[in-house]
Amino acid sequence: MRQNELNLFYTDMLQDIKSEQLSGETGNLEQLFTTHAISLLTDGGETADVTIYHHANTVARNRHKINAWAIADNYETLDLFITIFKCTENPVRVQKAETDNASTLIMSFLRKTQNREYAAGLEESSQIYDFAHTLNASQALKDNLVRINIFIITDGIYNGEIPTPREHNGIPVYFRIIDLNYLYNISEKEYIPIEIDFEQQGYPVPCIRAETDNAEYQSYLALIPGDALASIYEQYGARLLEQNVRSFLQFTGKINKGIRTTIIDEPHMFLAYNNGIAATADDVKLGQNEHGYYISSVKDFQIVNGGQTTASIYHTSKKDKADITDILVQVKLSVIKDKSNFAEIVSRIAEYANTQNKVSVSDLSSNAPFHVEFEKLSRNIWAPPVQGQSHQTRWFYERARGQYKNARANEGTTKAKQKAFDLRNPRNQFLTKEELAKYVNTWNEVYDEDKLVIGPHIVVRGSQKNYAFFVKYNLPEIPDNRYFEETIAKAKLFRTAEQIYGIKPHSIGDMRYITVPYTLALLSCTDGGSVNLNEIWKKQTVPDDLKDRLYDMMVNVENFIKENAPGDLYGEWAKKEDCWLALKGAKLN
Q1: C-alpha dihedral (492, 493, 498, 502), degrees to nearest 10
Q2: How many alpha carbons lie under 13 Å from residue 236 in its C-beta half-sphere?
């Protein structure tokens, strides 16, 4: 049964990416598969704000390759991705020699970025140029980077050994194999849980078990050694933070001065001075010795309050060479028994444990009133037929991951019924929360008390960061029909601009992810009133004269950013408010 489900998942996945290619999505099949896989990893909290970009060299003595990358907002973590794409009719085995080769290629790329001549030889307008220069010259990375994660992604099945961790310039490098089984598992669940064997790592965690009869949860009070906490933080980083609030609770690497002082000067007083951490788990294994109970292992360990404490212990031990062997941290650990209500209980614990935070978890979830109402509108409002067609269609809004797939499956298994579903809900009219935030934030500049808080520089920072700003500053309480239709018009504008920008070698350049949002934001600010969003909705297309205008604007916008970016790092400058203000202030032709 499992194999049949896996084969069906594989077939559907390949069909999806082939359909995307036919519908005009950019990139070859390998990159579309990479995008699909990373989307699943992002939804599962494994990574965030990834740049998809294929770069490779096949010359014998200069071989290297990379398919995507992500730099954490706090510069602590660098995620690198390389793809082994088989694209066979049925799933096939991936050999260890292939994963070894992939790890060699991506490590070769990492080493080459340290060569200034190599970086200088890259095309200056390319994203890989930006990335190589950031790795080579970013002081923030040099000061804060603590781990490099290398993801080897494949559509095959791998049962071999994972490449052993290694170091790059003193930074630990961890390898992950994301094969078809892993992608299938993460598509069926929200994410793959972290499992930590404290006993095996030499850190049994003494605890007291609360002897209460509670059907929803079991509580433990524990003392975790500082070096154990630092060890798991080095390996997992922000993945330890409860996933629904990871992007919003500022899990940074900045060292709290009070915590740092205690660690350095009075480590024996840490337990008395620090409030400790609150955490949740799916399952806990206990052991017993002459001192009582201890936690030997834990499944799905998530910190819901105490990220700053955890990061400060780690960074103080690394940067200040502080001895943390005498430090103990108190932990309130809640094991959720009620699996049917698991996500809700964990979110509530996270919300109440982080009461100092102005942003509540419930406001950020898929169940927020805005998302529920926008989903209803997407199911009930029919888009006018496109010229040349007689049938109406819908824009399918996926409030929670998997809704489109499930709705299609519920339609029936026959080809006729699924074709009928596809006609009503075409794949190119599929919309996620992150995409919605991108389209709205691009078009709607926002000021908060005279301070610019949303512009294209926020959109360029990546989907998760942009979504966080959307929720905080640009989210109406309840959308109406007009809001829905205008949002779809903005989506059409954005996607049309991407198509006009083009794909290499017939594209304007290599900065589409920057140029498109900046151009549309400029259009909205300077002459947005002349753009008839209602007309775009009614005709489900962008007028030809506006398409011509968009092309000319994008050429000018791209040239402006290239000519004015300090240090030629276009991508980094485009993420800053200065870039947007400079463009608005310029008198472009």
Answers
A1: 100
A2: 24
Over 286-301, what HEC string results? EEEECCEEEEEEEECC
Q: Token match 């499956």: residue?
A: 409
Measured distance CA(22)–CA(19) in Å, rounded: 5
Mean pLDDT of all residues belonging to the chain: 85
pLDDT for residue 245: 47
pLDDT of res. 174: 92
Q: Are 100 and 166 in contact (CB under 8 A)?
A: no
The model's pTM is 0.73
Contact by Cβ (8 Å): 121, 559: no
Cα–Cα distances (Å) from 220 to 142, 153, 206, 210, in that order, read 39, 37, 10, 6
Q: How far apart are CA 552 and CA 460, in angstroms?
A: 21
Q: Which residues of 135-147 are buried (b: 16+ CB within 10 A; e: fewer)?
A: bbebeebeebbbb
Burial (CB count within 10 angstroms: exposed 0-12, middle 13-18, buried 19+), residue 84: buried
DSSP conformation letters of 201-263? TT--EEEEE-----SSEEEEEEEEEHHHHHHHHHHHGGGGB-GGGTTTTT---PPPHHHHHHH
Lowest mean pLDDT among 195-209, 285-299, 341-355, 474-488: 341-355
By 3-state DSSP, what share of the chain in percent is helix, strand and coil, each rounded to 5? 50, 20, 30
Alpha carbons within 13 A on the beta-carbon side of 340 = 1
What does the radius of gyration of the chain's CA atoms come to, in whole angstroms? 25
Q: Which two tokens stand for residue 233?
A: 């933080």
Residue 362, pLDDT > 50, answer no
Nearest one of 519, 514, 498 to 571, comparing CA atoms: 514
Mapping DSSP to helix (H, G, I), strand (E, B) and coil, where does residue 476 land?
coil
